[in-house]
Design goal:
alpha/beta, Aspartate Aminotransferase, domain 2, 2 domains, four-stranded mixed beta sheet, 15 helices, binds pyridoxal-5'-phosphate
C-alpha cells in the first residue's frame, strides 16, 4: 500500500514538480532563464487583496501591483462579479462591423472623464500595441495630408514598450541595442533632471528648429518615467515642451499606460500637466489587473482625416483579434464604478501622504537616497552598497520576508494596489529597514 505523505510535504513536492515542469516549457518574460538555476521561481496558487500565496502557504505582499496593473487588490470581488456576469451573456465578438454594450458604455464613460476634445476610442489589448496604434495613426495622418514626417521624438530615459515600434521610441539601451538595425527612426531630447529645465527646453528648441518639420509626433510619459527608474519630472517642462512641439505641427502622444487611472495622483496625469494630447494611451490599470486591454483616445481632427469614401483607401487598417474583448470591458467598467463609488482619487490623496511619511523613515539609512513620490508611486535609490547587484540583493531578501518587490536596477519602489493598509505599509518599511542595514 502506498504510504500517505504528510500534507505539508506533499505541498512542497507539488511546488517543486510545478517548478520543474514550468522550467521545461516556459520561457519567462524579461528574464535571463539561467538565473533560475540559483534564484527560485515562485508558482502562485492564489491571491487575495494585496497578498499572493505560494504552494507552501507562504504569503507575499504585492508591493508592485504585479507590474503596475492591479488597482483594487487581487480577486477583487466586485470586478470578479462583473466579469462572471458578462461571461454568461457575451464573452467576445469581433469589433469590425460589430459592437457590444460594455464597450459602448465604457467609451462614453471614459471620454466623459477626459478633456472635451478627446472623443474617439481605438482599442487594442496591451500597452505596446496602444503605442503602435498611436504612432501609426500619427504617421498616417501626416501622410494623408501629404506631409513627409519620417521621425518620432521622445525623451531620454523613456520607456514605451517592447514591440519594435514602441522599442524605437524608448530609450532603454539594454532592451534596444540588439535591434538597432531594424528600428524605426526616432530622435531623443533630454528629460529634465531637476526643477530647472531651461537647458532641456533649449535643447528641444534647437532640435525642433533643425528637424521639427520632419517629426510627426512627440511621445512622452507624463510626470513619471516609471520604467526609467521612477524618474519624476516637471509638469511645467511638459507643458512648455508640448507647446513648442505644437508650433511645428507635431502631434503629442501621452503614454499614460503606467500613470493613468489614479497612479499619478489625479485620474489622468494630463490633468496636472494641463495639456490636451492628440493621443492618450491607456492600459495596465484599466481592468484593475484582471484582463489585457488597452485604448488610444484621440480627437475628431485625427478621426476626420481617415473618414472618406471607401475608394479613397484612407481607413486606418489596424486590428487585433481580441480588440475590445467584452470580458475585459466588463472589468474596465467595474473599475470605473469603484473609482466613482468610493471616491478613490480623493482618498488616495491623504493615503499617498501617509505612505510617504512612513517611506521616509528609511531616510535614516545613509546608503539610501533620492526619496521621492508622486501619487501612489514611492521610490528611493540605493546609493552605496557592498553588493554588486544591490537591487537583486533586496529583491531576494524581501521575498524571503514575504514582500514582492522588483527593483529597477538600484531603485527600490513601492507601487501598491490602492487598497493597501497603513499597517501593511508599515510592515514593508520595517522589513526594508532591516534588509537595507545589510546593504
Ligand atoms: C508597461 C508600459 C508600456 C507597455 O505596455 P505592455 O502592456 O507591457 O506592452 C508602455 N508604456 C509604459 C509607460 C509602460 O509602463
Amino acid at each position: 500500500m502506498k504510504k500517505l505523505k504528510s500534507p505539508k510535504k506533499e505541498q512542497k513536492n507539488n511546488a517543486q514538480s510545478l517548478v520543474k515542469l514550468d522550467l521545461e516549457h516556459i520561457w519567462h518574460p524579461c528574464t535571463q532563464m539561467k538565473e533560475h538555476e540559483k534564484i527560485p521561481l515562485v508558482p502562485i496558487k492564489k491571491a487575495k487583496g494585496v497578498y499572493l500565496y505560494d504552494f507552501n502557504g507562504k504569503s507575499y505582499i504585492d508591493c508592485i501591483s504585479s507590474w503596475w496593473v492591479n488597482l483594487f487588490g487581487h480577486c477583487n470581488p466586485y470586478i470578479a462579479k462583473a466579469i462572471k456576469k458578462q461571461l454568461d451573456s457575451l464573452e467576445h465578438t469581433l469589433l469590425a462591423g460589430f459592437s457590444h454594450k460594455p464597450i459602448i458604455s465604457y467609451s462614453a464613460r471614459l471620454c466623459a472623464l477626459l478633456p472635451k476634445k478627446l472623443t474617439k476610442c481605438f482599442y487594442a489589448d496591451n500597452g505596446s500595441s496602444a503605442v503602435e496604434v498611436a504612432l501609426k495613426m500619427s504617421f498616417a495622418y501626416h501622410q494623408l495630408l501629404g506631409e513627409k514626417r519620417p521621425y518620432f521624438l521622445s525623451l531620454s530615459n523613456s520607456y514605451h514598450g517592447e514591440t519594435l515600434g514602441a522599442l524605437s521610441v524608448g530609450d532603454v539601451e539594454l532592451y534596444k541595442k540588439e535591434y538597432k538595425d531594424i528600428l524605426i527612426q526616432s530622435l531623443t531630447t533630454p528629460v529634465p533632471k531637476d526643477s530647472d529645465f531651461s537647458k532641456e527646453l533649449a535643447s528641444l528648441k534647437s532640435l525642433l528648429e533643425k528637424k521639427g518639420k520632419n517629426i510627426c509626433a512627440f511621445i512622452l510619459e507624463p510626470l513619471v518615467q516609471c520604467a526609467g527608474n521612477m524618474h519624476i519630472y516637471s509638469k511645467d517642462f511638459i507643458k512648455a515642451a508640448c507647446e513648442l512641439c505644437r508650433q511645428f505641427g507635431i502631434h503629442i502622444i501621452f503614454d499614460e499606460i503606467a500613470v493613468g487611472f489614479g497612479r499619478s495622483g489625479s485620474m489622468f496625469a494630463l490633468e496636472q500637466c494641463e495639456v490636451v494630447p492628440d493621443f492618450l494611451c491607456l492600459s495596465k490599470g484599466i481592468t484593475g489587473g484582471f484582463l489585457p486591454l488597452s485604448v488610444v483616445v484621440t480627437h475628431n481632427d485625427i478621426y476626420k482625416a481617415f473618414y472618406a469614401p471607401y475608394e479613397s483607401h484612407k481607413a486606418f487598417l489596424h486590428s487585433h483579434s481580441y480588440t475590445g474583448n467584452a470580458l475585459a470591458l466588463a472589468a474596465a467598467n467595474a473599475v470605473l464604478d469603484i473609482f466613482e463609488k468610493e471616491d478613490i482619487i480623493k482618498k488616495n490623496k491623504s493615503k499617498s501622504e501617509k505612505i510617504f511619511a512612513l517611506w521616509q523613515n528609511l531616510e535614516k539609512n545613509k546608503k539610501l537616497g533620492n526619496f521621492r513620490h508622486q501619487g501612489m508611486i514611492f521610490a528611493f535609490d540605493i546609493v552605496q552598497s557592498k553588493h554588486k547587484r544591490a537591487g537583486m540583493f533586496v529583491y531576494q531578501e524581501a521575498l524571503q520576508k514575504g514582500l514582492l518587490l522588483r527593483p529597477l536596477g538600484n531603485t527600490i519602489y513601492l507601487m501598491p494596489p490602492y487598497i493597501i493598509k497603513e499597517k501593511q505599509v508599515a510592515y514593508i518599511v520595517q522589513t526594508l529597514e532591516e534588509i537595507c542595514q545589510r546593504l
